[in-house]
Every structure is written in structure tokens, then in C-alpha cells.
Design goal:
Elements (H helix, E strand, L loop, with lengths): L13 E2 L12 H11 L4 E7 L2 E6 H16 L7 E5 L4 H13 L2 E5 L5 H11 L3 E4 L9 H7 L5 E3 L3 H6 L14 E6 L9 E5 H14 L7 E3 L7 H12 L4 E4 L5 H11 L3 E4 L1 H8 L13 E4 L6 H11 L3 E7 L2 E6 L6 H6 L3 E2 L4 E5 L13 E6 L6 E2 L3 H7 L6 E9 L5 E6 L4 E3 L2 E3 L1 H9 L4 E11 L3 E10 L7 H9 L10 E4 L13 H6 L7
Parallel strand pairs: 2-11, 4-5, 4-6, 5-8, 6-7, 10-11, 10-12, 12-13, 13-14, 25-26
Antiparallel strand pairs: 1-17, 2-3, 8-9, 9-19, 14-15, 15-16, 17-18, 18-20, 20-21, 22-23, 24-25
């Protein structure tokens, strides 16, 4: 009897980095200078001014940012941290660029933080200066900042340009690509927030690669009010516009009517936000489908229902682009123009250039096969240097080979597209069966009357955990738990079907638009029978 050929091994879930697209060299300030020379008269920033808009050219932006850098160097040294506690504003943008030119480190505080959370950030980073503005409700933060900071080191952010006007010009210090640019605090959905330390190289190229993924150029008008205390705002949006010489529209907070007004008034070409933001635009009474001159709609922060993708594509008359990133690595994957609605709804795209990605068994570290679910690991120049002043947390997150352990569960398909199955800690174990919330959420989002959903594990005396779902119904629908269980049963094994339900008008979100699963879990209380 002849020997049987060996069974072929399944292809590994590992993608080598695509190095064909050159990265940017130098610092954020270097790139700003290059763009100001190349496009001095192009509009760099635009913002609402009464019923109209005001603008700032790249030549003027560089001049204003240099003046801020001179002022900073009168009060601090290169390498010092500069805390910014405010909603989005023109002054935030100038301060971010000023820090980049002065070799200082942007340290954004969430304007929704309590004093306790601010004390943690202050003690961890020891900022040389603290500039405070207003929160998203318009409440001033300066008085609280003065109680938190040292006398003489706290300033009102709104007066930044006036304060900097008197600074004497000087030679700015050399700033390298490897120098620290940003301490990005994690969303803090569990435990105290950690500060991801991002170099100029990491931030600049994350922005560059995101712009390249959608084919953006200097003619764009970017409109996306992601908060500046998040990488989506400070890196992807603001720097993403700058690296190509495009215009970024400053909004201090999201308001759908104002968003649509500015979109029309300024001729926005690139818009985006988390699904709840985009849905509120489509449902706004002043929205008229087919208006505008959009080239793409960026979406992310959570799983995206296919009906929403199809509606966005139809009504905005532009393709939807999805992406996946973390504070610890501001770009990991991205979809590409031409991806269909199913791909956009079910995956987060392919690894970005220069990103090496693999899926491993969390318990053994073994690289899994295509299609198998495990932890997503990434390596590349956009990965953080580590958690600022947290060596133990850094060692637990970046391994000896330089791979960032994202904590996200995913699977890679043969095309190189990544599907996210949830956080490793969010796996629901019901009677010994592992259940991935993202799979259940995907099934429920296919019901036409489900606008959004979050699936968690609820305590259960019999099975240990039971599948639970918090659902936002579409306006005017009459959803019931029985109808959703019947729908889920057509797509899921019986043990994956949720048995505990809450119908809500909104889900608890972080500033970056991610669902706070801990708060969703709290909706379901103690163990059920």
C-alpha cells in the first residue's frame, strides 16, 4: 500500500508588511514647513464665524504655530509635556503644531474627565504647562485647572494667540522623527487610563497612510469633529489633512445641523464619524440626499451595520471607508475604495502599508491558521514606543519581538481582510462554549429594525454566563425580544442567541465612540436563574 501524501497545513494568519509606499521622514513640524512652502496660500484651517466662515492659510498657520512655539520655549523645554484640557478649538490646533515645532509633547486631557481622572494624568505626565478651555457643553474648565495645576503654569487656552503675540522669535530646536510627539490616553473602559507614547514618526505616518488609503490630496476639505484628545482627531484628522496640504474644518463639538451647514458651505469632500454620528446626519430634517461633493465617508469606532453602509453610499453618493486603529497604533487596517457593503460591514479592511499583522493563540502565542479566531498582533513604525512611565504595562503589551498585543480578537481571511470578534476579555463563556459578541452583534444588526446593538455576558446561575443584548430600535419600529430571538436563531447556534434584552435610546460611549461594555454589563444586574 503506497504512503499517503501528508495533509497540507492550513495557511498561517500572518501578513508581512507592504513596504512599497514610502514613509514620511522627519517631524510633524518639518512636514508643516514643507507644506507651507509648497502651498502657502492654500486654506489650512476653516471654522464657523457667525453665519459665515473664517480661514487660515498654510503660511499663516506656520507663522502662528511658530509664535506659539516661541512662547512655549519661554516657559518650558524640549521634551516637556504640555497638557491641553478642552474641547476642539482653533487654539488647540495651534498649540498642537506649536508643541511639534518646539519639541514638546502634546498631552490631551478629556474635557469630560473628573478631577480625579485629571489628577491621575497630571501625576503620571507632570506637565510643564496646562492650558484649559471649555468642555463640550460650553462650561469653562480654567477654574478647575487652576486648582489642579501649579501657580503660574496654568493658562486659558482661548487667549493663546494673545499670550503668544509678545514672544520674541528665536531659533527653534531640532526635532527628530523618533522624538516623542503625543501622549495619547487610552479610553479607560477598564482601569485607569494609560498614556500611549507616540513619536513624530508614528503620528505623522499614521496620518499619511490614512490619507493615502482614501486617495486624498491637497484639494480636500476634511470635516470630522472627532475630539482632539483622541488619535482620531489629533492624528488622523488634523495631521491627515496637513500632510497632503488640504483644509481641515474646526468644530468644537458635534451638532448635526451645524455639521451639515458647514459641509455645504465649505464643500466638504471627506466626512466621517462613528455610526451614531452619521445616522444623525441622515435623519436630520435639513438633510437632502444627493447634495454635496463628497469623495468618501470615513467610519469606524464600532461595528457598522450593512444597511447603514448602503444608505450612506446611496444618500451621500460616495463610497464608505472603514478602518481599525488603537491609541497604541493609530492605523492598523483600512478598507479600500471599491470594497462592497458586505466586506465593509463584516471586516475592518486589510493591514495598512508597513503594518505586519498576525493572529495568535492568546494562551500559547502560536500563530493560528486563516479563519481561526485569536488575538490580533501588529508590528511596525506606527506602534507606540510604550505606555508613558508604565514599564510593566508596556512589557505586558509589547513583546520581545516588537509585536503589539492589541487585546482584540480577530480572524484573517485568504484575501488579507481582518474581522474583529471583540475584546479578549469580552468573550462570553456559556456552559463551556466560547461566544464572540461581535458575531452575535453582526447577526442582530441584520434585522432591519435594529439601529445599534451591544452584546455582553450577563451572570447566570446555571450556565455561568448568558448572552445579553442592549438594542437601539430604529425610529418607529415595534421590536420585541421574541422577534429578535427568532431572527437570531436563523443565523446563530441556539447557545449564542441572547436571552436577556434591554431596549434603549442610546448606548454608553467613550469619547472615541466605542461602546463602554462595562456599563452595558451593569444594565443586566445580578445573576439570573
Amino acid at each position: 500500500m503506497s504512503a499517503q501524501p501528508p495533509t497540507p497545513l492550513a495557511a498561517p494568519a500572518h501578513r508581512a508588511p507592504d513596504l512599497s509606499l514610502p514613509l514620511l521622514e522627519g517631524s510633524v513640524g518639518d512636514r508643516l514647513r514643507e507644506i507651507a512652502v509648497r502651498y502657502p496660500e492654500r486654506t489650512a484651517l476653516a471654522w464657523a464665524a457667525g453665519e459665515g466662515v473664517a480661514t487660515m492659510s498654510y503660511a499663516d498657520l506656520l507663522g502662528a504655530a511658530e509664535q506659539v512655539a516661541f512662547w512655549l520655549l519661554d516657559r518650558a523645554s524640549p521634551g516637556d509635556r504640555i497638557a491641553i484640557w478642552s474641547r476642539n478649538s482653533l487654539e488647540w490646533m495651534l498649540l498642537e503644531y506649536g508643541c511639534g515645532l518646539a519639541g514638546m509633547v502634546v498631552t490631551g486631557w478629556n474635557p469630560a474627565w473628573s478631577d480625579y481622572e485629571c489628577e491621575h494624568a497630571r501625576d503620571l505626565t507632570e506637565p510643564a504647562l496646562l492650558l484649559a478651555g471649555h468642555d463640550t457643553r460650553g462650561v469653562e474648565l480654567l477654574s478647575r485647572a487652576e486648582a489642579l495645576g501649579e501657580p503660574g503654569k496654568v493658562f486659558p487656552l482661548e487667549r493663546l494667540r494673545t499670550l503668544a503675540a509678545g514672544a520674541v522669535a528665536r531659533e527653534l530646536p531640532p526635532v527628530g522623527a523618533a522624538d516623542l510627539f503625543l501622549i495619547q490616553f487610552t479610553s479607560g473602559t477598564t482601569g485607569r487610563a494609560k498614556g500611549a507614547a507616540l513619536s513624530h514618526r508614528a503620528a505623522l505616518n499614521a496620518a499619511w497612510l490614512r490619507a493615502q488609503a482614501c486617495g486624498a490630496d491637497e484639494t480636500e476639505v476634511w470635516l470630522n469633529p472627532s475630539p482632539m484628545n483622541h488619535v482620531g482627531g489629533a492624528v488622523t484628522m488634523l495631521l491627515g489633512a496637513m500632510v497632503t496640504g488640504a483644509c481641515y474644518v474646526v468644530m468644537n463639538r458635534f451638532e448635526p445641523g451645524e455639521y451639515l451647514r458647514l459641509m455645504t458651505l465649505l464643500g466638504a469632500t471627506r466626512v466621517g464619524g462613528v455610526p451614531t454620528v452619521l445616522l444623525s446626519l441622515l435623519d436630520h430634517p435639513v438633510w437632502t440626499p444627493g447634495t454635496g461633493r463628497l469623495r468618501s465617508i470615513g467610519i469606524g469606532g464600532t461595528q457598522v451595520p450593512r444597511p447603514l453602509i448602503e444608505r450612506l453610499t446611496r444618500e451621500f453618493a460616495a463610497p464608505v471607508l472603514n478602518a481599525y486603529a488603537q491609541s497604541e497604533c493609530p492605523i492598523i487596517t483600512s478598507s479600500v475604495p471599491g470594497d462592497d457593503a458586505a466586506t465593509l460591514a463584516e471586516t475592518v479592511g486589510q493591514p495598512a502599508p508597513h503594518v505586519e499583522l498576525k493572529v495568535t493563540d492568546p494562551s500559547t502565542g502560536r500563530t493560528l491558521a486563516l479563519g481561526e479566531v485569536g488575538e490580533v498582533l501588529v508590528r511596525g513604525p506606527m506602534v507606540m514606543d510604550g505606555y508613558y512611565r508604565m514599564a510593566e504595562a508596556t512589557a505586558a503589551t509589547i513583546d520581545g519581538e516588537g509585536f503589539l498585543h492589541t487585546g482584540d480578537l480577530g480572524s484573517l481571511d485568504a484575501r488579507g481582510y481582518l474581522r474583529i470578534h471583540g475584546r479578549a476579555r469580552e468573550v462570553i463563556i456559556r456552559g463551556g462554549e466560547n461566544i464572540y459578541p461581535a458575531e452575535v452583534e453582526d447577526a442582530l444588526l441584520r434585522h432591519p429594525d435594529v439601529a445599534a446593538v451591544a452584546v455582553v455576558g450577563a451572570p447566570d446561575e446555571r450556565f455561568g454566563q448568558q448572552v445579553a443584548a442592549a438594542v437601539i430600535p430604529r425610529a418607529g419600529s415595534t421590536l420585541t425580544a421574541e422577534a429578535l430571538e427568532a431572527h437570531a436563531a436563523t443565523r446563530l447556534a441556539h447557545f449564542k442567541v441572547p436571552r436577556a434584552w434591554r431596549f434603549v435610546s442610546a448606548l454608553p460611549l467613550t469619547a472615541s465612540g466605542k461602546v463602554r461594555k462595562v456599563e452595558v454589563e451593569a444594565m443586566f444586574g445580578k445573576a439570573s436563574g
